């Protein structure tokens, strides 16, 4: 039996209406859209004393650049391990990596504003991961997700679509900050990157509309190539669309043996290892104040739980994985992959691992099995040898995928019963709050809190269960803890 037949048989590719080639293309697409985390995560987590309020991971005897190199390695390893578990155990096409937002909370709030040692913050991540493993094993996480009200479940996909779209449009320079209106149209006509992004976006839309296989990845690579040509011509600056200056990273991974992972462009000979990060959480456990530590774990837990739940439900909706009640069969398996990823990530030195909403790009390319996730995992490991070639794809190119998929995901609104206002309100709140707060979890919270209130007010008592009220109350408690300053007061 050849490799293709083996992969097809192990992942039941044909039974899922896919092919090995389609799964691999889908995996490459997902990887390209989420590979920016290789550089972004280290940048956020590293102590940068020249930026006010940023007090992330700092290691005596190592510069911030050296620590970023270590964090790049553990980011890759954590993403590869978590996504590998997703592939082999869950057989789902979802990519995983340290989550944005959660890493900022780790560095800016827990370590920076609260002054908690970064080792203790890592201990909180490990504690959260172990708690997730236990709750997943007994089916508690699946039970809670099944409590999501139906209009909220069906609204998550559209909310994520809007969330992806605004992220993509910002990276492409089409949407920019504005002091008066918060966001506005960027200077498209005078910005070469924005013009290039528009060309790449509509090129990708055209390929997609024609039904060209691999249209999204063709659009990404085509835009990146055109950007390279314009850079050589001096029209686009060399650093346009790059998430960080990654050319100076020189890495080693002594956990797997002593060797250097060099970036050819770097021209550097220093060797950095991840020994100071791996197992650092153990030292953090010795410096714990019980109540404040519990509050930090609670915050990590709450955001990660509902971010992951929302991503799994939303991406599964466009993949056709959901049953008639809006539930994802065997959701405990991808949840366990997420829990293991978080635990391993904290142990080796990075913030909470979560399921990536960018997985929608691979799903839209036809990815339906764990072979897509396996491809993502392998590409993360391969990127160790080329760090950060993966991140060299400029954001204005890679984030085209987010806009394309975001537009497509808007079609999920047809699953919502808009004729009933008691469904319209929680669904609408879920959809709107996600992009406006930059948080999947907050969008879900808005829908869950509003659902029992409007159902009760509308006299539809049979649609409300005690669990709905319990979830709503839990979110109210979370927002009180998160926004009242109680964490700061206890640390």
From TrEMBL:
<dbReference type="InterPro" id="IPR045018">
    <property type="entry name" value="Azg-like"/>
</dbReference>
<keyword id="KW-0813">Transport</keyword>
<protein>
    <submittedName>
        <fullName>Permease</fullName>
    </submittedName>
</protein>
<feature type="transmembrane region" description="Helical">
    <location>
        <begin position="369"/>
        <end position="390"/>
    </location>
</feature>
<feature type="transmembrane region" description="Helical">
    <location>
        <begin position="192"/>
        <end position="209"/>
    </location>
</feature>
<dbReference type="InterPro" id="IPR026033">
    <property type="entry name" value="Azg-like_bact_archaea"/>
</dbReference>
<keyword id="KW-0812">Transmembrane</keyword>
<dbReference type="Pfam" id="PF00860">
    <property type="entry name" value="Xan_ur_permease"/>
</dbReference>
<feature type="transmembrane region" description="Helical">
    <location>
        <begin position="396"/>
        <end position="414"/>
    </location>
</feature>
<keyword id="KW-1133">Transmembrane helix</keyword>
<feature type="transmembrane region" description="Helical">
    <location>
        <begin position="121"/>
        <end position="140"/>
    </location>
</feature>
<comment type="similarity">
    <text>Belongs to the nucleobase:cation symporter-2 (NCS2) (TC 2.A.40) family. Azg-like subfamily.</text>
</comment>
<keyword id="KW-0472">Membrane</keyword>
<dbReference type="GO" id="GO:0005345">
    <property type="term" value="F:purine nucleobase transmembrane transporter activity"/>
</dbReference>
<keyword id="KW-1003">Cell membrane</keyword>
<feature type="transmembrane region" description="Helical">
    <location>
        <begin position="335"/>
        <end position="357"/>
    </location>
</feature>
<feature type="transmembrane region" description="Helical">
    <location>
        <begin position="70"/>
        <end position="90"/>
    </location>
</feature>
<feature type="transmembrane region" description="Helical">
    <location>
        <begin position="249"/>
        <end position="270"/>
    </location>
</feature>
<feature type="transmembrane region" description="Helical">
    <location>
        <begin position="97"/>
        <end position="115"/>
    </location>
</feature>
<feature type="transmembrane region" description="Helical">
    <location>
        <begin position="152"/>
        <end position="172"/>
    </location>
</feature>
<feature type="transmembrane region" description="Helical">
    <location>
        <begin position="469"/>
        <end position="487"/>
    </location>
</feature>
<dbReference type="GO" id="GO:0005886">
    <property type="term" value="C:plasma membrane"/>
</dbReference>
<dbReference type="InterPro" id="IPR006043">
    <property type="entry name" value="NCS2"/>
</dbReference>
<feature type="transmembrane region" description="Helical">
    <location>
        <begin position="277"/>
        <end position="303"/>
    </location>
</feature>
<feature type="transmembrane region" description="Helical">
    <location>
        <begin position="426"/>
        <end position="449"/>
    </location>
</feature>
<feature type="transmembrane region" description="Helical">
    <location>
        <begin position="216"/>
        <end position="237"/>
    </location>
</feature>
């Amino acid at each position: 039996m050849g490799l293709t037949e083996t992969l097809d048989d192990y992942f039941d590719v044909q039974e899922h209406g896919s092919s090995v080639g389609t799964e691999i293309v889908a995996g490459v697409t997902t990887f390209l859209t989420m590979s920016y985390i290789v550089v972004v995560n280290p940048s956020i987590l590293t102590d940068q004393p020249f930026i006010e309020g940023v007090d992330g991971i700092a290691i005596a005897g190592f510069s911030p650049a050296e620590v970023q190199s270590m964090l790049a390695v553990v980011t890759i390893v954590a993403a590869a391990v978590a996504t590998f578990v997703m592939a082999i155990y869950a057989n789902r096409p979802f990519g995983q990596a340290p989550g944005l937002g959660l890493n900022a909370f780790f560095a800016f709030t827990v370590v920076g504003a609260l002054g908690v040692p970064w080792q203790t913050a890592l201990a909180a991540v490990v504690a959260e991961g172990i708690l997730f493993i236990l709750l997943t094993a007994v089916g508690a996480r699946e039970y809670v997700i099944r409590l999501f009200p139906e209009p909220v479940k069906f609204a998550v996909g559209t909310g994520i679509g809007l969330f992806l779209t605004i992220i993509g449009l910002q990276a492409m320079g089409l949407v920019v900050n504005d002091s008066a209106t918060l966001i506005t149209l960027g200077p498209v006509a005078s910005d070469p990157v924005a013009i290039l992004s528009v060309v790449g976006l509509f090129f990708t839309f055209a390929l997609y509309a024609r039904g060209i296989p691999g249209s999204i990845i063709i659009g990404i690579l085509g835009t990146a190539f055109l950007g390279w040509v314009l850079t050589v011509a001096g029209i686009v600056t060399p650093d346009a669309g790059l998430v960080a200056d990654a050319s100076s990273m020189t890495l080693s991974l002594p956990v797997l043996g002593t060797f250097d992972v060099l970036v050819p462009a770097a021209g550097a000979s220093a060797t950095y290892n991840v020994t100071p990060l791996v197992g650092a959480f153990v030292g953090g456990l010795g410096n714990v104040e019980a109540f404040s530590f519990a509050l930090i774990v609670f915050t990590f837990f709450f955001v990660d739980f509902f971010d992951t739940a929302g991503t799994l439900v939303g991406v599964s909706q466009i993949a056709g994985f959901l049953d008639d009640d809006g539930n994802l069969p065997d959701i405990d398996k991808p949840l366990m992959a997420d829990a293991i990823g978080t635990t391993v990530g904290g142990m080796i030195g990075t913030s909470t691992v979560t399921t990536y909403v960018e997985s929608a790009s691979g799903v839209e390319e036809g990815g339906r099995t764990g072979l897509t996730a396996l491809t993502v995992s392998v590409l993360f490991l391969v990127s160790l040898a080329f760090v950060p070639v993966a991140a060299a794809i400029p954001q204005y190119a890679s984030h085209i995928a987010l806009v394309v998929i975001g537009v497509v995901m808007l079609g999920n609104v047809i699953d919502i019963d808009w004729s009933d206002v008691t469904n319209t309100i929680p669904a609408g709140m879920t959809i709107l709050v996600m992009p406006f707060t930059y948080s999947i979890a907050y969008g879900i919270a808005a829908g869950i809190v509003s659902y029992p209130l409007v159902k009760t007010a509308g006299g539809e008592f049979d649609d409300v269960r005690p669990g709905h009220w319990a979830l709503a109350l839990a979110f109210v408690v979370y927002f009180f803890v998160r926004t009242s300053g109680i964490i700061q007061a206890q640390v």
